[in-house]
Amino acid sequence: MAEDNGKLERFEARINAGEKIEPKDWMPERYRQQLIRMMSQHAHSEVVGMLPEGNWITRAPSLRRKMVLLAKVQDEAGHGHYLYSATETLGVTREEMLEKLLSGKAKYSNIFNYPTLTWADIGVIGWLVDGAAIVNQTMLAKTSYGPYSRAMIRICKEENFHKKQGYEIVATMARGTPAQRKMVQDALNRWWWPTLMMFGPHDKDSPNSGDLLRWKVKLKTNDELRQRFVDITVPQAHAVGLTIPDPELRYNEETGHWEFGEIDWDEFWRVIRGNGPCNKERLAARRKAHQEGAWVRAAAEAYARKHGREPGKAA
Amino acid sequence: MATEKNVPEQDTQWPRWEVFVQEKTGEPHQHAGSVHAPDGELALQNARDVYARRGKVYSIWVVPAEHIVATSPSDQGPFFDPAEDKIFRYPHFYKVPRGVKNL
Ligand SMILES: [Fe+2]
Ligand SMILES: [Fe+2]
């Protein structure tokens, strides 16, 4: 134990000095476990996040929009890969992570349990959901775990196009026909509150926050990140004549922040516990894709073995 | 539906390969992350799809993860120490008469 205390002290000193922790370095078991939980949830979110948007690829209103949406969804698959790869450095296998996702034991971002009802939802998701992800991921690019930080830097470089293409859709519809304007306002009304929930519970109700902040896995609290998102996003809504669906929203001249109403936390917990509008549908879609791809994985492996080309054998 | 299980029997995620990319000629290959693939050829294709979606890559290496041999943090002292007390490997160790240029 005394030896462990010394290790913990050195570990925390390194973190306070701004050093990154690398896979083979000593780390407290709780640091490792919290990272595995957080990073695999993040990876699952990228993967499940493809489903609501993928739903509109075949119905994109023009070839340009379709190419863009395809590229965006493909990026999200890439983000899932970066994150699974980074999580594997902590000694957990991809098989274990996938099993946890498919069995429903692992969580992914609540936001993807809401349906995409109209084309305007695709615009609003890029603008709000990717916008919120950028706020979170910009912070995580500075996280204390090296592989997570490097994956986040890669992701951040790609996210800006996701947000911009979404806002372009929103701005186009907002200056379109009355029906288009109504459609995009309706999408904003449905996505605004679930997006604010993406940042998680209030700091006082967030049990994991203490250690995560102390060990610089996170550098800002849920409420700080949420406030930053609101401050960035409200003027963007106003610039295209859209209304944020919050009667309590007002600008505080003194603090320079937008103040906003309370989130419906009952809804938040209901969706997290599996009873959101699309939880079952999302998991069913992932399981089906995984099962139907099994023969492809098996065949490719058999082929490689037959030709003596698996790793470890010279080609 | 073949099975009620979430992951089919004898499922495989394929072995892991570490990926190194070179963004321009003249630059070193840098570690980018890893992919899973049944063989080297598919590992290269997967690495391209995952780590080179935006052009900017000149060359990719993939290496079976189990073949990488690395130092461990406990080597920090003994393994790297011998380099530390050899300042005569640096040019500022040497005295040169005033006024002599281009040395
Ligand atoms: Fe992403
Ligand atoms: Fe994105």
Describe the structure.
The complex is a heterodimer of chains A (315) and B (103). Chain A has 315 residues and is mainly alpha-helical. Chain A has 13 helices and two strands. Helix content of chain A is 66%, strand content 2%. In chain A, strand 1 and strand 2 form a beta hairpin. The longest helix of chain A has 29 residues. Chain B has a domain of 70 residues: Ubiquitin-like (UB roll) (Roll). In chain B, strands 2-1-3 form a three-stranded antiparallel beta sheet. In chain B, strand 1 and strand 2 form a beta hairpin. Chains A and B meet through helix 4, helix 5, helix 7, helix 12 and helix 13 of A and strand 2 and helix 1 of B.
Keywords:
heterodimer; A: 315 residues; mainly alpha; two-stranded antiparallel sheet; B: 103 residues; alpha+beta; Ubiquitin-like (UB roll); 3-stranded antiparallel β-sheet; 3 strands; 17% helix; elongated; binds fe (ii) ion
Report a brief summary of the structure.
The complex is a heterodimer of chains A (315) and B (103). Chain A has 315 residues and is mainly α.
SS elements, strand count of chain A: 2
Q: Let me know the CATH homologous superfamily of the domain at 14-68 and 79-93 in chain B.
A: Phenylacetic acid degradation B
- Number of separate strands of chain B: 3
Bound molecules: fe (ii) ion
How large, in whole angstroms, is the Cα Rg of chain B?
A: 23 Å
Sum up the overall morphology of chain B in one term: elongated
Write the layout of secondary structure elements.
The complex is a heterodimer of chains A (315) and B (103).
Chain A: H1 2-16, H2 29-48, H3 50-54, H4 63-88, H5 94-102, H6 119-140, H7 146-174, H8 178-197, H9 209-214, H10 222-239, E1 250-252, E2 257-259, H11 265-275, H12 279-292, H13 294-306
Antiparallel strand pairs in A: 1-2
Helix pairs in contact in A: 2-4, 4-7, 6-7, 6-8, 6-10
Chain B: E1 16-22, E2 30-36, H1 40-51, E3 59-64, H2 76-80
Antiparallel strand pairs in B: 1-2, 1-3
The site of one fe (ii) ion has 5 residues of chain A, from helix 4.
